[in-house]
Amino acid sequence: MSPEPSATESLAGGILRIDLGALVANWRLLKGKLAKGATCAAVVKADAYGLGMAEVAPALYQAGCRVFFVALAEEAFALRALLPDAEIHVFSGATDASLSELLRHGIIPVLNSLPQIDAATAHAKARGKPVAADVHVDSGMNRLGLEASELAAIASAPARLAGLDLRLVMSHLACADEPAHPLSAQQLAAFKAARARIPAFAAVPASFANSAGIFLGADYHFDLARPGAALYGLKPHNSAPNPMAQVVRLQGKILQVRDVDTPMTVGYGAAHRVTGKARIATVGVGYADGYRQSLTNRGHAYLGDIRVPVVGRVSMDLIALDVSQVPAALAVPGAVVDLIGPHHDADALAGEAQTIGYEILTGLGRRFHRIYVPAKESQPA
Ligand SMILES: *Cc1c(COP(=O)(O)O)cnc(C)c1O
């Protein structure tokens, strides 16, 4: 039996289909690019980039992934409840308040500053037991991580790290999605220099690459890679066709179809003026579902293989498509259109919306009828 109910079985205006088989295939593809023995972790922050951590993380675990990263302590606690045995790291580190709770759940904070390190070592001293933690070194992104002056302070006083059970030293690339960008090589050199300077950092596994970093080559891989976006099918770099399998399909349901003629307009603000006879389909997905308003008069959808434009403003629950070129029998109430699909992936939609695929995925709304295709049932891409 197909796991997918027909569109009309669901009352939702849109159907979000998440292919866990494609997700697992992507994880395996990324892992396959790393050296034997290197670890391919998975970044599942922001509810697994909007796709649902509760389904995504166990599917990856079943495929053999054991190391996970989230952004926030709350996300880590939720993940711990799903995966009692996984290794879980938290990018945003720990506050005095959250540290003991993280440790109680066996969660590893990424310490991003000297004050965070000092708090962790003080905690270790107080409880008479080392604190397992990572250290993030800023190699040139200037967002999170130890800065040069903090590195210098540790280099001249290595005892600042006493009490830490250091698990990983990491850094993060700013421009890895642009393979020609010179900053990546500069960051690589800075990361290596930091490790060379501080023996405690050289003695533990290192992690540098996000999705795009994996495609920069083996120099960038170190011991553990931290892909997020590419797992979910987003294009990891801007210089080649997307090698990742598509995980997300978003379909909107046609609610009404109407024939219009000049001089008429469509939607709020009369933002689309009809210039002849036209057929307009109204679809039950809008900006409240993450179909961004910037797609007004810019977005495209597919009815089967036929590309159809969004006309007029995106409203909260609805969009209008010009389906004049579509055979009348196909554009009917109850039929579905691909908003994200085989002809038009999340990156393509993001381009039309003048944003990035990450924002499209993490912005996917809560009202869709969600279908998770189990890993073993999905077809290879
Ligand atoms: C989000 C994040 C990642 C994952 O990046 P992708 O580009 O989605 O692969 C890796 N490392 C850090 C520090 C992050 O914040």
Brief synopsis:
The chain has 381 residues and is of the alpha/beta class.
What is the alpha-carbon Rg in Å?
A: 24 Å
Summed over residues and divided by their number, the pLDDT gives a mean of: 94
| Secondary structure category | alpha/beta
Largest sheet: 7 strands, parallel
Terminal CA distance: 21 Å
Name of the CATH homologous superfamily of the largest domain: Alanine racemase
Q: Number of helix segments? A: 12
Helix content class = 25-40%
Determine and state the CATH class of the largest domain: Alpha Beta
Would you identify the regions where 5 or more consecutive residues have pLDDT less than 50? none
Give the neighbour order of strands across the main sheet.
3-4-5-6-7-8-9
Bound molecules: pyridoxal-5'-phosphate
Question: Which geometry do the CA atoms define?
Answer: elongated
Compute the number of strand runs.
Answer: 19
CATH architecture of the largest domain: Alpha-Beta Barrel
How many distinct folded domains?
2
Strand content: 15-25%
Assembly type? single chain
CATH topology of the largest domain: TIM Barrel
